From TrEMBL, chains A, B:
Keywords: DNA-binding, Transcription, Transcription regulation. This is MerR family mercuric resistance operon transcriptional regulator. Residues 7-76 form the HTH merR-type domain. The keyword Transmembrane does not apply. It comes from Zhongshania antarctica. GO terms for molecular function: DNA binding; DNA-binding transcription factor activity. The lineage of its organism: Bacteria, Pseudomonadati, Pseudomonadota, Gammaproteobacteria, Cellvibrionales.
DNA sequence: ATAAACCCTGTAGCAACTACAGGGTCAAGT
DNA sequence: ACTTGACCCTGTAGTTGCTACAGGGTTTAT
């Protein structure tokens, strides 16, 4: 009655998470992904946990976080070895940078939405996109 | 009575924009920054326009855009050579990715804010930060 | 049993910086 | 005018974060 754990080859994990198969190996090599179990023939066997972490890493990278920052963020979730105040301080640092990123993206969003509106209205756009992030 | 234009050396531009001095040269070499005027001795002389573009590039990079994407975005602002529908379509593509980034960052923001709240309440945090971007 | 599709390790390439090396420029102080 | 120190120039080499082979072993499906 042991419930079977769904497992994945590297190519399968790559497909599900949308992370390149080579990149998965790279993340393991630099300690971002915990090394998975191996088959008798030495091939990696990934489980759900790995997929979740891979998705988290990919989306964080897309948001401009470095691998070091992502390592930091991941270590927060496994904070048994940290004091509460350490977790609090590290979280606060990242929270500030996240809020700044959201602000900048919203400025860009507004600028682009305005440009689309101008195009739809068929007026000649002056497109001051650079201005969006300099003020 | 000609109003003087404020100009900047590379180191000054680097300091003001918070872009590494070497990186400024790199952006020029790959066509992201328009080449500035030179002094008699051959040294680069930057003006406000360069600083604005540098700040735009830096902040866009921090938001996870590639240099190619940033080139695209910059070219939108100088869209005299494009049809309105081209500008509209390119803007729409970037707008979608920006909205997705905002969504992801807001999930992270909430997770981190919750962790800080838990720490403040002095309860043991379980810190499910990975979960923030996998659902 | 044999082919196709995948995996392994290791290494080499690419993008986007970052940091020299070896020499020239410039501005400030004397 | 001259020196000195901080900066600039070009070119090249190193770093990070991937991405793509090469040469060989494993797995799966027929």
């Amino acid at each position: 009655m042991n419930s079977k754990i769904r497992s994945y080859s590297r190519a399968q994990a790559a497909k599900v998470t949308n992370v390149n198969a080579e990149t998965i190996r790279y993340y393991e090599s630099c300690g971002l992904l915990q090394p998975p179990a191996r088959s008798a023939g030495g091939q990696r066997i990934y489980i759900e946990e790995h997929l979740q972490r891979l998705i988290f890493i990919r989306r964080s990278r897309e948001l401009g976080f470095t691998l070091k920052e992502i390592k930091d963020l991941i270590s927060l979730s496994d904070s048994s070895d940290r004091s509460c105040s350490q977790v609090r301080d590290l979280s606060a640092v990242h929270l500030r940078s996240i809020k700044a990123k959201i602000r900048d993206l919203k400025k860009m969003e507004k600028t682009l939405a305005d440009m689309i509106k101008q195009c739809d209205a068929n007026t000649t756009p002056t497109c001051p996109i650079i201005g969006a992030l300099t003020s």
